[in-house]
């Protein structure tokens, strides 16, 4: 806690950045889901080859990767905030945060490998 101008300041002050990140990533994910739904209804893929054809288009791969990156960022902000609010011992909280970061990065790399393989 730090006292500044008569106020007690606590925490990491992520507030506005977290709020904005959550809204921006949510909008990006919603737009992707709407576009994917439209594409699926238009092309109506019936087998794996048709699904692969949809994701062979470079724009779809990039959009899918941006969706997944937004999902990971959105998840990170939410999980970090929960850990900061409810896990008080610093060593445990930092360990959990590191595990979450490593996991989310691994999932994103795995997704990139799948999209571009």
What does this molecule look like?
The chain is mainly alpha-helical and 117 residues long. The chain has one domain: Up-down Bundle (3 helical TM bundles of succinate and fumarate reductases), CATH 1.20.1300.10. Helices cover 79% and strands 5% of the residues. The chain is built from four helices and two strands, in the order ββαααα. The protein has a two-stranded antiparallel ribbon with strand order 1-2. A hairpin with a 2-residue loop joins strand 1 (2-4) and strand 2 (7-9). Helix 1 packs antiparallel against helix 3 (58-86) and helix 3 (58-86) runs antiparallel to helix 4. The radius of gyration is 19 Å and the shape is elongated.
CATH homologous superfamily caption: Fumarate reductase/succinate dehydrogenase, transmembrane subunit
- Supply the number of structural domains: 1
Which CATH architecture would you pick? Up-down Bundle
As for the CATH topology, it is: 3 helical TM bundles of succinate and fumarate reductases
Q: Any idea what the shape is? A: elongated
Q: What is the overall number of helices?
A: 4
Unreliable residue stretches: none
- Sketch the major β-sheet: 2 strands, antiparallel
Distance from N terminus to C terminus (CA atoms, Å) equals 50 Å
């Amino acid at each position: 806690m730090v006292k500044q101008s008569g106020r007690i300041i606590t925490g990491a002050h992520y507030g506005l950045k977290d709020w904005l990140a959550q809204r921006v990533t949510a909008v990006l994910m919603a737009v992707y889901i709407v576009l994917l739904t439209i594409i699926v209804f238009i092309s109506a893929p019936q087998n794996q080859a048709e699904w692969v054809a949809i994701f062979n288009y470079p724009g779809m791969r990039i959009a899918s990767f941006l969706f997944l990156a937004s999902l990971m960022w959105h998840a990170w902000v939410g999980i970090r905030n929960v850990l900061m609010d409810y896990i008080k011992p610093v060593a445990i909280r930092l360990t959990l945060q590191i595990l979450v970061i490593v996991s989310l990065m691994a999932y994103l790399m795995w997704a990139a490998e799948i999209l571009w393989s």
